[in-house]
Amino acid sequence: MITLNTPAPVAHAGLLGLGVFRPERIVTNDEICQKIDSNDEWIQERSGIIERRHADAHETVVTMATAAALAAIADAGISPEQLDMVMIATVTHRYQTPSAAVEVAAAIGAVNAAAIDSSAACAGFCYGLGIADGMIRSGVAKYILLIGAEKLSEIVNFEDRGTAFLFADGAGAVIVGPTQAQGIGPTIWGADGTQLDAIIMEPDVFTAERTGNPSVLTMQGQQVFRWAVEQMGDACMQALTAAGVSVADLAAFVPHQANNRITDALVKQLNLPDHVAIARDIQYSGNTSAASVPLALARLRENGEVKSGDLVLLVGFGAGLVHAAQVALVP
Ligand SMILES: CC(C)(COP(=O)(O)OP(=O)(O)OC[C@H]1O[C@@H](n2cnc3c(N)ncnc32)[C@H](O)[C@@H]1OP(=O)(O)O)[C@@H](O)C(=O)NCCC(=O)NCCS
């Protein structure tokens, strides 16, 4: 029988660098309310959102991902040629093919990298982290650039008051690579395709005319809210247990930035001690789907609320419905 070679595994993987891109244009609740019957007070109270950022016409998933990628590469102190893989979690790249990842790889000079987009909506970044961790420890890749990048302003119907105020644009990137000690806990993930109507992006001729993106998003807000509050606390607990740590070891909790009230419910369920910082980037960034977890983590690091080596709990959840949770050490 023929025996095939396998790559030499390495013991440990972790985050080596982090970088983000936030579009310049700030969109207030008052501006959103020009097209829906709502108001600033309701939006802040029911979601936590004070403002969000929308990309301009020249800012695309690719340009935002590229900017975040370059920042992450600089933060990690590696060169683009060292990357073996560029993976972009996105649901708003305009083309089915080629992927956004091939364009970003070319733009940053990742000439030795494979490139792929993945679709796990708001769980995309945490899914990607689980995949990257496995690829590095198995020896398949040494350095992976993982990016969450979204231009949700292109697929939102700004006359739908259930979604118009929630979704926004941005990109966050990390470099994942070999480390001295394990820096990414086991990923707890899952999918429930029986709830595929809860959040869905479907072809829409009007959005195509308005923005050039062929899809529009619809959401059953209460259904998603209930599911997140009922199930994500358990996923978080499993991620802690699987990694052999407890809430006392955490420096911060970085849930997907979907709704501050979902975050509040999870903080309560997890019984997080006071010293644990809670990511509330949704206040200034809205819900940026796959970009929300790295954007929120970066804001905590920028504000000095976490530092390199601190343990954080990440959880992503969204359309599918899908979810993924893990702990990680801050780069
Ligand atoms: C979207 C969301 C903020 C809506 O908040 P909610 O508290 O569930 O609101 P409801 O849909 O129950 O509506 C409550 C009331 O507010 C009204 N309302 C809905 N949207 C409104 C708006 N933008 N402005 C003012 N009132 C609004 C409703 O008509 C309803 O009025 P009624 O009680 O007179 O019937 C919330 O459901 C949510 O965040 N869901 C999860 C979304 C999410 O996580 N999505 C992404 C996952 S990736």
UniProtKB/TrEMBL annotation:
Pfam families: ACP_syn_III, ACP_syn_III_C. Keywords: Acyltransferase, Cytoplasm, Fatty acid biosynthesis, Fatty acid metabolism, Lipid biosynthesis, Lipid metabolism, Transferase. The keyword Cytoplasm applies. InterPro entries: ACP_syn_III_C, ACP_syn_III_N, FabH, Thiolase-like. Residues 117-193 form the Beta-ketoacyl-[acyl-carrier-protein] synthase III N-terminal domain. The keyword S-adenosyl-L-methionine does not apply. GO terms for biological process: fatty acid biosynthetic process; secondary metabolite biosynthetic process. Pathway: Lipid metabolism. Residues 240-327 form the Beta-ketoacyl-[acyl-carrier-protein] synthase III C-terminal domain. Belongs to the thiolase-like superfamily. FabH family. This is 3-oxoacyl-ACP synthase III.
